[in-house]
Every structure is written in structure tokens, then in C-alpha cells.
């Protein structure tokens, strides 16, 4: 039977050793465990006796009760988010190379630092709805990720940008929840309540007044003036204008026009080539003013039919980043010193073009066609707030109509017509 032996240590103090024979048999193996206090020794002695003179289950000699380590959860490496997400992008079809490159950048920079080590499948270490919500709140607030290096600072994302990233994450996790052999039962992104795309301080469009555009053009380098005037005068996109060739100057119904049939595309490695425009409606023809015709004719002088109209100093089309750094920003700074208070982007020339058309009462369907919008709803969503410019015209039209409807006198010509008309017999 288990018992306690006390022993005085040479250095002072007492040790208490519980001894017993395994199984309580006289011939059983001698076992022992040492303690520094009598109470602990008594408790252990009672456990040994309670388990039939054997070691208590889970007790490790010299350590006490130690929980058995759970076997590590085995996760298929292919289902880890950092592996599954890039593979998902690689398998996308009917998606341009530069779009895939953008998706990979979003995954690397704004998702993996949060979801690294988590799996897209159900079970332990799975990406949950709460994990998605925490991630969305973090990127919206500009908080660092769990796997960011120390001191990493992040910028706040606008509601639209955060929604765009959530949309990609949702597509990835929806793929994991779909198909013949789904990896998970549901898409956790569906639990996130998203803000409206126009909530918060999203990047605003900048519209230039005529004098502001003129001031900016005044300070552009000579080799940038024609390009900027075509952007401003047609409302075409940067990629469309910089891909224009001499053969795109055409005549439609006897009127000079510009045919938009190509734009710059980027593959997954970042190399560019020309391809079809953004959408079906983007393939369009834009009628030209005499000023625009003269600019285009000047750009086409001495060039072959398939030569680019606008080129960088070293030849070839401008890259947007190079143009912005070498031509656009210097002109902005010079114009700012001369009274320009706005800081437009190059794409704001397109927005400015639309604003000028609205100010001249051009119908929205015509503007949508000129800009190459796939749907007039796009035009309404983007520029509908500018229709306030037309309030005076609307008020005048409504006032005229209401005054006519409420007039006490029937107009003389209408009275005469009524007298001449035969009486109507009511059934």
C-alpha cells in the first residue's frame, strides 16, 4: 500500500516521497514520487491508492498531471488561403492578364496578411464569418494585419475600395463552397453587412471650369498639349486615346469623327499590347469639332495608317505613370502657383468633358454613347448629381406648363376648335 516517507535534506527542509509497489503486489515494481510538502504527498498517495496502486492516468513522473497534446490538425496545403486564392485567380477565364495581376496584388497585400495559415475548407482553422468581419473593419480603419511586420502602417480604404476587396474575397470563398465537391458548407462573406459604395471619404471626381482647363493647358509641355486637348475634347479614356492610330480618323455621314476600336491591355507579366476596348459599347465613333480635327490632323502628319498619333519623346505610347510624373504633375504645380486650386487626375478630363456636355443640356443618352458607357444607368449614377446645373431650365419649363394648366381662360384657338368639333354622345 502506498505510503509517505519523510527525509531531511542536508541543505535544510524536508522531502516527502510516496512509495508503492505496482498493482499492490508484493512482487510488483517499486515506484515512487517526490514532493516538497506533506499535503501534496498525501493527495498523490490517495490517488495512487484510488487507482489500485498504479500511476494515476495522465500523471507524468516529476511533472504532475500533463494534458495529452492533441495531434495537430492536418490541413491540405492546397486549401490554405495563401495557396488556394492565387490558384483560384490562375483558373479564371475571360479575364484579362492585367486584371489577374491586380487580383494577385490584392490577395498578397490585403488578404494573406490576415488569413495566412487559415483554410478555405470547413473545420478547425477555417476562415469564419467573424474573421471576415474583423478583416473588413481593419482595412476600412487602416489597422495593421496580424501577420504584418512590426511598425507596418496601413491607409484607410474608402467604402468602395473595401467593397471591391470584399467582392474578390467573397468570390474566392464562394468557389470553395461550390462545385461537385465543395470544401465548405457556406460562404462566410455573406455574413458581412457592407456599407454603401459612396459612403465615407471616397475619392471624388474633379470637374474643371473652362478657365481652369485653359490654365492647366497653358503650363503643359508642348508635346503634351495635343494629347490633353483630345482627352478633354472627346471624353475618351487614357488607354483609348494613347492607342489611337492615323486610320482611326474617319468620316461618318460626311462629318469628321474619331473611331475608338482599341485600347492598351496588360498581360500578367505587365507587358502591354493593344486589344479591344473595355466593353461592347466602348467600340464607338466620336464626332469631332473643327478644333479637334485640326489637332488630330497635326498629330497624323507624316505618319503611316497604323502609326500611333500620340507618342512619348523616345517613341512608343506614353505610359500613364511616366506622363503623370513628367508632364501632368509639373503642369499642376505651375498652374497652382497661378491660381489653380484643384488637383485633377488625368481621368478627371473625362469627367470634365461629361460635365461640360451636361451644362449645355446634351441629353444623357447622347453623353452615354459618346463616353462608351455600357448602360445609361452608369451615366446617371456617375453624373446624375450634375443635373442640378439644369435646375433653372427645369423650373422655367415646369412653371410654363403649370401656368398654362391653371389658366382661367381657354386659349382662343382651342375654344374655336371645340366649337367646330361635333358633339360627343356619352353612352
Write the layout of secondary structure elements.
Blueprint: E1 3-8, E2 14-21, E3 30-35, H1 38-50, E4 59-60, E5 64-65, H2 81-90, H3 97-110, H4 112-115, H5 129-141, H6 159-176, H7 210-218, H8 222-234, H9 238-241, E6 249-252, E7 255-260, E8 263-266, E9 272-275, E10 284-287, H10 290-300, H11 320-336, H12 348-359, H13 364-371, H14 376-383, H15 391-405, H16 412-420
Question: What's a concise summary of this model?
Answer:
This protein is an alpha+beta fold.
Which short descriptors sum up this protein?
3-stranded antiparallel sheet; alpha+beta; 427 residues; elongated; 42% helix
Describe the structure.
- By secondary structure, this protein is an alpha+beta fold.
- The protein is 42% helix and 11% strand.
- The chain is built from 16 helices and ten strands.
- It has helices at 38-50, 81-90, 97-110, 112-115, 129-141, 159-176, 210-218, 222-234, 238-241, 290-300, 320-336, 348-359, 364-371, 376-383, 391-405, 412-420; strands at residues 3-8, 14-21, 30-35, 59-60, 64-65, 249-252, 255-260, 263-266, 272-275, 284-287.
- It has a three-stranded antiparallel beta sheet with strand order 1-2-3, covered by helices on one side. A three-stranded antiparallel beta sheet has the order 6-7-10, with helices on one face.
- Strand 1 (3-8) and strand 2 (14-21) form a beta hairpin.
- The longest helix has 18 residues, at 159-176.
Largest sheet entry: 3 strands, antiparallel
Helix content: 40-55%
Radius of gyration: 38 Å
Instruction: Decide which structural class fits the backbone.
Output: alpha+beta
Globular, elongated, flat, extended or rod-shaped: what is the shape? elongated
H/I helix tally: 16
Rounded mean pLDDT score: 87
Strand proportion, as a percent range, falls in 5-15%
Identify the strand order in the major beta sheet.
Answer: 1-2-3
What is the distance, rounded to the nearest whole angstrom, between the alpha carbons of the first and last residues?
Answer: 118 Å
- Which parts are unreliable, with pLDDT below 50 for 5 consecutive residues or more? none
**Helix and strand succession?**
EEEHEEHHHHHHHHEEEEEHHHHHHH
Amino acid at each position: 500500500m502506498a505510503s509517505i516517507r519523510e527525509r531531511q535534506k542536508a541543505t535544510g527542509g524536508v522531502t516527502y516521497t510516496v512509495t508503492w509497489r505496482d498493482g499492490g503486489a508484493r512482487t510488483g515494481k517499486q515506484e515512487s514520487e517526490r514532493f516538497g510538502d506533506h499535503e501534496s504527498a498525501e493527495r498523490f498517495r490517495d490517488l495512487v491508492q484510488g487507482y489500485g496502486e498504479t500511476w494515476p492516468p495522465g500523471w507524468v513522473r516529476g511533472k504532475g498531471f500533463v494534458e495529452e497534446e492533441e495531434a495537430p490538425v492536418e490541413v491540405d496545403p492546397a486549401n490554405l488561403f495563401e495557396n488556394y486564392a492565387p490558384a483560384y485567380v490562375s483558373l479564371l477565364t475571360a479575364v484579362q492578364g492585367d486584371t489577374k495581376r491586380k487580383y494577385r496584388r490584392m490577395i498578397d497585400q490585403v488578404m494573406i496578411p490576415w488569413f495566412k495559415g487559415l483554410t478555405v475548407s470547413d473545420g478547425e482553422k477555417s476562415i469564419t464569418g467573424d474573421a471576415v468581419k474583423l478583416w473588413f473593419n481593419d482595412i476600412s480603419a487602416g489597422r495593421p494585419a496580424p501577420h504584418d511586420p512590426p511598425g507596418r502602417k496601413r491607409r484607410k480604404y474608402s467604402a468602395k475600395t473595401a467593397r471591391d476587396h470584399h467582392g474578390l474575397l467573397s468570390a474566392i470563398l464562394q468557389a470553395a463552397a461550390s462545385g461537385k465537391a465543395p470544401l465548405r458548407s457556406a460562404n462566410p462573406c455573406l455574413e458581412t453587412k457592407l456599407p454603401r459604395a459612396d459612403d465615407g471619404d471616397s475619392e471624388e471626381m474633379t470637374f474643371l471650369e473652362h478657365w481652369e482647363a485653359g490654365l492647366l493647358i497653358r503650363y503643359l509641355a508642348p508635346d503634351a498639349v495635343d494629347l490633353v486637348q483630345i482627352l478633354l475634347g472627346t471624353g475618351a479614356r487614357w488607354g483609348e486615346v494613347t492607342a489611337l492610330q492615323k486610320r482611326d480618323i474617319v468620316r461618318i455621314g460626311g462629318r469628321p469623327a474619331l473611331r475608338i476600336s482599341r485600347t492598351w491591355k496588360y498581360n500578367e507579366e505587365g507587358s502591354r499590347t493593344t486589344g479591344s476596348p473595355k466593353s461592347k459599347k466602348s467600340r464607338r465613333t466620336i464626332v469631332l469639332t473643327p478644333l479637334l480635327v485640326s489637332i488630330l490632323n497635326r498629330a497624323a502628319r507624316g505618319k503611316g495608317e497604323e502609326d500611333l498619333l500620340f507618342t512619348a519623346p523616345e517613341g512608343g505610347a506614353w505610359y500613364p505613370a511616366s506622363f503623370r510624373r513628367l508632364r501632368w504633375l509639373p503642369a499642376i504645380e505651375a498652374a497652382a502657383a497661378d491660381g489653380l486650386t484643384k488637383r485633377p487626375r488625368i481621368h478627371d478630363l473625362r469627367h470634365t468633358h461629361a460635365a461640360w456636355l451636361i451644362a449645355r443640356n446634351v441629353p444623357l443618352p447622347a453623353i452615354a454613347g459618346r463616353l462608351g458607357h455600357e448602360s445609361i444607368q452608369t451615366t446617371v449614377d456617375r453624373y446624375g448629381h450634375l443635373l442640378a446645373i439644369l435646375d433653372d431650365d427645369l423650373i422655367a419649363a415646369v412653371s410654363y406648363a403649370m401656368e398654362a394648366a391653371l389658366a382661367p381662360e381657354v386659349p382662343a384657338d382651342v375654344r374655336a376648335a371645340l366649337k367646330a368639333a361635333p358633339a360627343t354622345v356619352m353612352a
